[in-house]
Specification:
With 337 residues, this protein is of the alpha/beta class. It has 2 domains: 210 residues, Rossmann fold (3-Layer(aba) Sandwich); 108 residues, Magnesium chelatase subunit I, C-Terminal domain (Helicase, Ruva Protein, domain 3, Orthogonal Bundle). The chain is built from 15 helices and 13 strands. The strands form 5 sheets. A 5-stranded parallel β-sheet has the order 3-6-9-1-10. Strands 2-11 form a two-stranded parallel ribbon. The chain has a two-stranded antiparallel ribbon with strand order 4-5. α2 packs across α12 and α12 packs across α13. The protein is globular, with a radius of gyration of 21 Å. The two termini are 29 Å apart.
């Protein structure tokens, strides 16, 4: 099958999966697109929002549209790491001899919903780290591979809420995108009421299998990116570092630590998915700009002045992108749209 055919197949699959999710979820169009983008890029997604906005339902609906195994972990302060990864238990065979047998935890699934992840203690939160990065977990000295594709979708409450533990920076960095789930508009709220307070049932069809998802992940990495577009993505990430000699004033003033190379990887891979989903087999500057906030908002750590002034990281990322673009225009670099 040629690249054009495979690209068309991807567009059809992306739209079909999106349509299945939208059967249940009202609004949140951009959130749905970004969740699918993260899944096809091979990353993990963190959704932040107050309870009751449909974060968990969105993830469960996505899982129903895929022929993949699904697990849900409800994070609570008394949850232990063994409750996530599993543990060795003593069992007795038919001859009365005892031996250790590994009891798989809920992490051994293709799609893992980590619900209210910041309600658990840091020790328990860290149980996900190895699985998210390596696709395997180590229990009792033995490394056990997780099923492929492995996709973590975590929800968290805003850190100002009672009984929450902020995720450590190392774990935040392992999330491909951080998405902010907003309150619905009035029309959307009316549609939610109509859908959820009537007797009709909505059937979500399974439209994609695991091997198909893995095949699309390979296709996405083959999408070309021009050197000037790649340079634009790199410049945005570098501009989040206050110590960089070309960093804009806003970064020098409010940022303590900038985004890691994982931020640049998320930016470029996400842009490749966005381009392909729109039927284009090349990445544009607009793709990079559209994904700068979800890829970088959780990777920028504000300094004391930024925290004291209540600087919004989305606004900060927008200002950094504008400054990088303005600097490129001054240098007479032409960005292809």
């Amino acid at each position: 099958m040629g690249q054009e055919e495979r690209a068309r197949e991807f567009v059809g699959a992306f739209q079909a999966l999106r349509a299945e999710v939208e059967k249940v979820i009202v609004g949140h169009g951009e959130i749905i697109t970004h969740v699918l983008t993260g899944m096809f890029a091979g990353g993990h997604i963190l959704l932040e929002g107050v309870p009751g906005l449909g974060k968990t339902l969105l993830i469960k609906t996505l899982a129903e549209g895929l022929e993949l195994s699904f697990s849900r972990i409800q994070f609570t302060p008394d949850l232990m790491p063994a409750d996530i990864v599993g543990t060795n238990i003593i069992v007795e065979d038919a001859d009365g001899r005892k031996h250790f047998q590994f009891q798989h935890g809920p992490i051994f699934a293709h799609i893992l919903l980590a619900d209210e992840i910041n309600r658990a203690t840091p020790k328990t939160q860290s149980a996900l780290l190895e699985g998210m990065q390596e696709g395997a977990v180590t229990v009792g000295g033995a490394s056990r591979p997780l099923p492929a594709p492995f996709f973590v979708l975590a929800t968290q409450n805003p850190i100002e809420m009672e009984g929450t533990y902020p995720l450590p920076e190392a774990q935040l960095d392992r999330f491909f995108f951080k998405l902010r789930v907003r309150y619905p508009a009035l029309e959307e709220l009316n549609a939610i009421i109509d859908r959820t307070t009537q007797a009709r049932q909505v059937a979500v069809n399974r439209v994609l299998s695991g091997p198909t998802v893995l095949g699309f992940r390979e296709l996405i990495r083959e999408v070309p990116i021009a050197s000037h577009v790649r340079d634009f993505a790199s410049a945005i990430v570098m501009a989040t570092h206050p110590q960089w000699d070309q960093a804009p004033e806003v970064a020098r003033r409010f940022v303590r630590y900038g985004a890691s190379p994982r931020g640049a990887q998320a930016l470029v891979l996400g842009a490749k998915v966005r381009a392909l989903a729109e039927g284009r087999y090349n990445v544009s500057v607009d793709d990079i700009k559209a994904l700068a906030a979800p890829a970088l908002r959780h990777r920028i750590i504000l300094n004391f002045e930024g925290e004291a002034e209540g600087v919004d990281t989305d606004t900060l990322v927008g200002q950094i992108v504008e400054s990088v673009e303005a600097a490129a225009v001054e240098r007479k670099e032409v960005f292809l749209r």
